[in-house]
Amino acid sequence: MLMLDGVGTMHSARQGPLGIARRCVVHLMAGLCLLLSSPEASAVDIKTIQSYAGSMLTPLEFSSALVLWQKESNWNIRARNGSHVGLCQGRSKYLIKANYKQQVQWCVKYAYNRYGSIALALDHWRRYGWH
């Protein structure tokens, strides 16, 4: 007897433990292939981005950036939220193609130009939920 499972895969109703194990392996491998081909898998490691940001900021500014950019993008340089993109969710088309170093530099300049520092940008974010 043949049956369809929840995702439309046809299989025998009497598979037994070996059939179930095979099906699990197939599904796990398919999921792994999808994961490895995702843009996040080929993205720059978070620690690399944080190390670069830490090298250009004071400890206070870096600790503020750690919190702010975690909330904004989870340190994902390809993050999107409507028209906002990148590490600090800026509204610049430049950020779409910018690498992690360019994004960190842009985000630092933005925070300093608009708020005076990243710490003040974080204060604004805490007060209003955006920066």
Mind explaining what this structure looks like?
This protein is mainly alpha-helical and 131 residues long. The chain has two domains: 36 residues, no CATH class; 85 residues, no CATH class. The chain has seven helices and four strands, in the order E-E-H-H-H-H-E-E-H-H-H. The strands form two sheets. Strands 1-2 form a two-stranded antiparallel sheet. Strands 3-4 form a two-stranded antiparallel ribbon. A hairpin with a 5-residue loop joins strand 1 and strand 2. It starts with a strand and ends with a helix. About 15% of the residues have low confidence.
Q: What count of domains describes the coordinates?
A: 2
Content of β-strand: 5-15%
Mean pLDDT: 81
Largest sheet: 2 strands, antiparallel
Number of helices: 7
**Helix and strand element order:** EEHHHHEEHHH
- What's the overall geometry? globular
Radius of gyration: 22 Å
**Widest sheet: strand order?**
1-2
Relative helix content: 55-70%
Report how far apart the termini are.
60 Å
Category by helix and strand content: mainly alpha
Are there runs of 5+ residues with pLDDT below 50, and where? 24-42
Please report the total strand number as a whole number.
Answer: 4
List the helices and strands and how they pair.
Layout: E1 2-4, E2 10-12, H1 16-36, H2 39-42, H3 46-56, H4 59-73, E3 80-81, E4 84-85, H5 94-97, H6 100-115, H7 118-128
Antiparallel strand pairs: 1-2, 3-4
